[in-house]
Amino acid sequence: MIRKLKSGVYRLYxxxxxxxxxxRRNLGTFKTRAAAQKHEMAVQFFKRQ
Length: 49
Known about the structure:
alpha+beta; 3-stranded antiparallel sheet
C-alpha cells in the first residue's frame, strides 16, 4: 500500500496490520511514486522465495 505523505514523499506500507500494535509496517519512504511501486514489486518477489 502506497500513501503520499504531507511532506510530498511516498511511503510503502504492508498490506496487513501488526496485531500487536494495530499499525501497518513501514516498508520504505521514496521521493517518487514510481520508485515506491518498483520497491513494492521487489518486496512481492522476495516474499514468494
